[in-house]
Design brief:
The complex is a heterodimer. Chain A contains 1 helix and no strands. Chain A is an all-alpha fold. Chain B has 9 helices and 9 strands. Classes of the chains: A mainly alpha, B alpha+beta. The interface between A and B is medium-sized, with 17 and 26 residues.
């Protein structure tokens, strides 16, 4: 089975981007909880 | 949990929890409108019985055109909503086509949600191409090959990711294509991590 090309430098950038997106989501979610008065 | 690994499918039977029901119902819509997808990352371990919670389920969607995306959007709109945006044109053009995830949740719930992306590189395309069919309590799901998931989780490298990799390897090692697993471990440069955490 042929393996896909794996660019570790690009994957590291992706990992950081993904982490940033998750932090943004947590901010969105905590704002949502506050608005819903669940905290 | 009972599971059996066959050449062409994996059969899992266990009591489904709330997250499982969320995944099954969402994927049922994708299956019905015949859009190729693959579940990757944390939920793969959870599906195989790992005991942990997850706020989101990562899903790669084949790169579809906007008309097909609108069909998907409309099919989901009965019970789900996109968290970030309300216009499918923006979700498609400004998010998916720019390699940014969109999140779908049950209406008014936010968590759990599906984090959906288009394939961004050869690995993602390979994952969709080689996705594995799972019959989970007779429901159809498609997941990433485990031989890729284990080294990829090691590469991500958080405690949670390493534990996910450990769970998959410990549970499934005798069923894995070891040659393929080793190739991915080498490609991700994870030999040391594999020896340290999984052996």
């Amino acid at each position: 089975m042929k393996l896909p090309k794996i660019d570790l430098e690009e994957l590291t950038k992706f990992k950081e981007k993904n982490f940033k997106e998750r932090l943004e989501f947590i901010e969105f979610y905590t704002d949502w909880l506050k608005k819903k008065n669940k905290l | 949990m009972n599971f059996k690994i066959f050449q062409d499918k994996i059969v899992i039977d266990r009591v489904a929890n709330e997250l499982d029901d969320f995944v099954i119902r969402f994927c049922d819509i994708l299956n019905k409108i015949r859009i190729n997808y693959v579940i990757v990352s944390g939920y793969v371990s959870i599906l195989f019985g790992r005991s942990r919670l997850s706020e989101d389920v990562d899903l790669l969607l084949e790169k579809i055109n906007f008309d097909d995306f609108r069909k998907l959007w409309n099919s989901l709109s009965g019970g789900y909503e996109c968290i970030q945006i309300k216009a499918p044109e923006i979700a498609y053009q400004d998010y998916l086509m720019e390699n940014t995830a969109i999140r779908f949740c049950r209406k008014g719930q936010v968590i759990p949600n599906f984090e959906i992306k288009f394939p961004k590189d050869e690995i993602d395309l390979w994952t969709i191409e080689h996705r594995q069919l799972v019959l989970f309590n007779k429901n159809i799901l498609y997941i990433s090959p485990i031989e890729l998931q284990i080294p990829f989780k090691l590469f991500l490298g958080s405690e949670k990711d390493i534990e996910d990799a450990k769970h998959l390897y410990s549970l499934l090692r005798k069923y894995l294509n070891i040659e393929l697993l080793n190739k991915f471990i080498n490609a991700f440069n994870m030999n040391e991590g594999f020896d340290r955490y999984l052996k």
